[in-house]
Amino acid sequence: MKHKLLKNLFILLVFFFLYLPIIVLIIYSFNSSSMNILFENFTFKWYIELFKNNDLIMSFVNTLIVALTSTIISTIIGTISAYGLYKFDFPLKKLINSLIYIPIVIPEIVLGISLLSIYTLMKLELGMFTIILSHIAFSIPFVIVSVRSALSSETVYYEEAAKDLGASNFKIFKDIILPVIMPGVVSGAILAFTLSLDDVVISYFTAGPGSNTLPLYIYSMIKTGITPDVNALTTIMLTITFITLTSIAVIQSRKIRKRI
Amino acid sequence: MKKNSGFKSFFILPIIIYTFVLILLPIIYILFLSFCTSDSYGGILYNFTLDNYLNIFDMTYIKMLLKSSLIALVTTFICILISYPFALILRNKSEHIKNLTTKLIMVPFLTNSLIRTYGWIILLRKNGIINKFLTSLGIIAFPLNLMYNKLGIIIGMTYTLLPFMLLPVCSAVFEIDKSLIEAAKDLGAKPLQIFKNIILPQTISGVFNGSLMVFIPAIGYFFIADILGGGKTMIIGNLIKNQFLTARNWPFGSAIAIFLIIITFALVKVYKKLGGKMEELGGL
Amino acid sequence: MEKKVLVKLENVSKSFGSVEVIKNISLDIYEGEFLTLLGPSGCGKTTILRMISGLDDVTTGKVYIDDKDMTNVDATKREVNTIFQNLALFPKMTTKENISFGLKMKKVDKAEIDKRVDEVIKLVKLQGFEDRYPSELSGGQQQRVAIARSIIMNPKVLLLDESLCSLDLKLKKDMQIELKRLQKKLGITFIYVTHAQDEALSMSDRIAIINNGAIEQLDTPSNIYKYPKTLFVADFIGEANIINAKVLEVGDNEIKVSMLQDHVVDIKADSIFEKNQELKLVIRPENVRISKNELANGIKGSINDITYSGDSTKLLVNIPGSIDIKVCINDDNKYVYNDEVYVKFDSNYIIPLRK
C-alpha cells in the first residue's frame, strides 16, 4: 500500500516539475509588483496593461499568424505528400523518404542557420515570409510521419474496392482515403501548430525587422527583466488552448460513445 | 496510365520541390560555405580551404565541445532516470490514464519554451522562490547558486527536453507484452532480473530514440545556456550562433554545423542498428 | 441450346518481375454460371480474378468480357465487380453510403439511387442497419453489405475473392446458401475463388482446379470428384487412396494391373496405357469394401486407426508390407483397434492415372 502511494507520488512529482514554471507564471500574472520577484498583492491590472503594450500585442499577433499559416500550408503539403509517397513510385522516392527525416533529427540551430544562409543567397528579405517558410520547412516532415501512420496496408484494399466500383483517382482520395487518414491529418496539424508556437531557435535566425514574434520579443527583454503583462498573455493563451483541447477531447469521446 | 500523370504530379511534385529547396539545398549550401573563408566584414570569399574544419580542433573549441557534450549527456542521463520509473509505474494503469498522461506531457509545449525557461528564472534566482522557500524553512542559511552556472543549464535543458524522453520510453515500455513479465515471474525471476532480461532489451531502441531527441537539441539550445547559464558557459549552439550573428564568420559557423550533422547522422545510424524506426523518432 | 461465353481468357500469362505466376491459361466462363477457381494458396487463383476485374494487367494474352476485348480497359470501366477477401468496406461510411458509392460514382440521380439501395438492402436482408458503420455490424452483416455494394452495380460478372473464409463455420454455411440463392435469383455470373474444397463442391456449377498457375482440370463438381484427371486433383479434392501399380495386360477399354503385392485387378481405362507401365490408382475411401469375413479376391489387413466423425467413420487399414488404406463407412462401432479385416476394391471405382 505504502509502495503504491510512493509510486503515484513519483508520477505527480514529474508532472509537478513539468508544470511548475507554468504555474509560477500564472500566479505572478496576478502580482501587483512589476518585478516578478516578490508576490505583493493580488491584481488584474496586468491583464489591462497588456492591451496597452503595442509591441507585445503585435508580436503575439505575428506569432499567431506564423503558427496558423505555417500549420495550414504544411498540413496540406504534408498530407498530399504522405499519400504521394505511399501510393506512387518515382525515381527519387527512396532518397526523399530518407531526406525528409533530416529536419526531425538535425539540431534546430543547424536548420536555422542553413535556412538563413539560403535566404541570404537568394536575397530574400528576412521578415514574416521567411519565418513562415522556415516553420513550414520544419513542420512538413512531422505532418508526413503523422499522416503516414494512418495510411495502413488496409488503405490499399479500400482503394481497390473504390476503383472496382468505378471511382476516379481524385474521388478515391477525397471520399475514401481522406476520411480514413483524418485522425493522422488532425494530429499532424496539432503537432505543426504546437511546434510553431514552441519554436525559438529557427525564428531567431529567420526573423527580420518588423517580424517580431513573441519568443523574440521576450528574448530581447529577458536581460532587462520581463514585465508581468507577458505572464498575463501567457495565462490567457494557456486558458484558451486548454479549453480548446478539452472540448476537442470531449467531442471525440462523445463521438466514440455514440458509435458504441 | 498517361491519363494519371496530372494526378500523380499533384501528389509528388510538392514533396520533390520541398525536399530539394528546403532540405537539400540549405545543407549543400552550408557544406559549400564551410570550405570558404570570410573577410573581416563578414563577406564570403570563395576560395577552397579546410581551415574551418582544422580550426574546430583548436584546444579552446575542443574543450567547449567536450563541456557542451558533457552537459547534454548529463541531461540525457537524468531524463532516462526519470522516464524509466515513470513509464514502468504507468504501465499498470488503465488505457484511459495512459492516454491522459501522454496528453498532459504535451500540454506545456503549447506555451513557448522561452516563456517556460523564463518561469525558471523566477524559481531559481538568488532571491527566487526556491531559495526563499528553503531559507524560510531554515534548511539553508544562505541562498544557493541555482542558476547562472552549469546547474542552471542542466535544470533548464532537462525541463525542456524531458517530454522527448518520456514519450518514446513510455510507448516502448507500454508495448512490452504483459505475459512475458508474468512468464518470467513464474519462472522465478527477480525484479532486477526481469528488468535486465526482458524490459531493457525490448526498450533499448525506445531509450536511444529519446536519447537522440534529448542529446541533439541539448547541444544546440543556445537560449537556455544564455538565460539560465548567464552567458558564462557556452554550448555548441552558442558558438554557431555567435559565428553567424556576432563574429559574422559564416564559413566557420557552417563547418561546426556540418560537424554536428555528421555526429547526428552517426547517432541515427546507431539508433537504426538497435532496431529503431525513423518514423518513431521523438515518439510524437 | 448453346451457352453464351461471357468471360473469355485467351492464352493469358502473368509475371511479377521474373516470376511467372500464371502460365498460359485459356478459360471460357458461361453466362449465368457459378464457376469456382479452387486451389491451394499461392496457386494464382486470385491473380486470375484480378486480371478479370482489371486490378491487375495481363502480361500476355487477352481478356474478353461479353465479346468485347477488355485487356487494356481500366478496372473502373469494366462491368465487373469484386467482393474482396477482407471485404474492404469503407470504414467511415454507413451501410447505405457504402452501398450507394458505386452508383454515385456513375452519377446516377439521387431518387434512382435511393430506390435501388432500398431494393438491394431488402434483397440481402439488411433492413434496419442502413445507418450503421461497418465497425458496428457483425461479420455476416458486413458480408451482406459487401455483396450489396457489388450487386447494386448490376455487374455482368461478380467476382468473389475468398469472400467467406473469414466467417465461422455456421455462418459460412448460411452465407453459402444465401449466395447460391442470390446467384440463381439475379442470374449473374459468379466467379468464386477459394481454397476450401467443401465450398467449391457445394456451390459451383463448374470448378477449375488451379495449381502452379495452370488449370489442372475444369469440370462439374461431381466429375471432378469422381473422375480426377491428375494426381494433384485426386489428392486435393476429397480423400483418396493413391496406390502404386503396374500394367500387366492391355485390352480394349480395360487393363489388367497388379498392385499391393501382386493383387491383380481388371479396371476400365479410357486413356492408353502400355504393358509394364508404372501407374497410380486412385480409390476414394467410401468405395473400398471392408468386411470381417473373408472376401473373394480381398486383401487381408488390420485396423490401425478409427476416427469417428458423426455421419461416418474413417478407418485406417494396415496391409502388411504395404501402405495403409483409408476406408470410410457409414456405421460405427462394428470394428475395434487391431481387428483383422479384409478390404476389396470395386474395379468400377478405380481410377488409373499416369505417374
CATH superfamily of the largest domain in chain C: P-loop containing nucleotide triphosphate hydrolases
CATH topology of one domain in chain A: MetI-like fold
What is the distance, rounded to the nearest whole angstrom, between the alpha carbons of the first and last residues of chain A? 36 Å
Seen as an oligomer or otherwise, the chain set is: heterotrimer
Biggest β-sheet description of chain C: 6 strands, mixed
| Beta-strand content estimate of chain A | under 5%
Beta-strand content of chain C: 35-45%
In CATH, the topology of the largest domain in chain C is named: Rossmann fold
Unreliable runs of chain C: none
Quick one: overall form of chain A?
globular
CATH architecture of the largest domain in chain C: 3-Layer(aba) Sandwich
**What is the H/E order of chain C?**
EEEHEEEHHHEHEHEEHHEEEEEEEEEE
Largest Cβ-defined interface: A-B, 88 and 82 residues
Instruction: Encode the helix/strand succession of chain A as letters.
Output: HHHHHHHHHHHH
Q: Can you give the helix content of chain A as a percent range?
A: over 70%
Set out the fold topology.
The complex is a heterotrimer of chains A (260), B (284) and C (355).
Chain A: H1 2-28, H2 45-49, H3 54-87, H4 93-99, H5 102-105, H6 108-121, H7 128-150, H8 154-164, H9 169-198, H10 201-206, H11 214-221, H12 228-259
Chain B: H1 5-33, E1 37-38, E2 44-45, H2 51-56, H3 59-91, H4 95-106, H5 113-124, H6 129-136, H7 150-175, H8 178-186, H9 191-218, H10 222-228, H11 236-245, H12 250-273
Antiparallel strand pairs in B: 1-2
Helix pairs in contact in B: 1-12, 3-7, 3-9, 5-10, 7-9, 7-10, 8-9, 9-12, 10-11, 11-12
Chain C: E1 5-16, E2 19-30, E3 34-38, H1 45-53, E4 60-65, E5 68-69, E6 80-83, H2 95-105, H3 110-123, H4 139-151, E7 157-161, H5 169-186, E8 189-194, H6 197-203, E9 206-211, E10 214-219, H7 221-226, H8 231-236, E11 241-250, E12 254-259, E13 263-268, E14 278-283, E15 288-291, E16 299-308, E17 313-318, E18 324-329, E19 340-345, E20 351-354
Parallel strand pairs in C: 3-8, 3-9, 6-7, 7-8
Antiparallel strand pairs in C: 1-2, 1-4, 4-5, 9-10, 11-12, 11-14, 12-13, 14-20, 15-19, 16-17, 16-19, 17-18
Helix pairs in contact in C: 2-3, 2-4
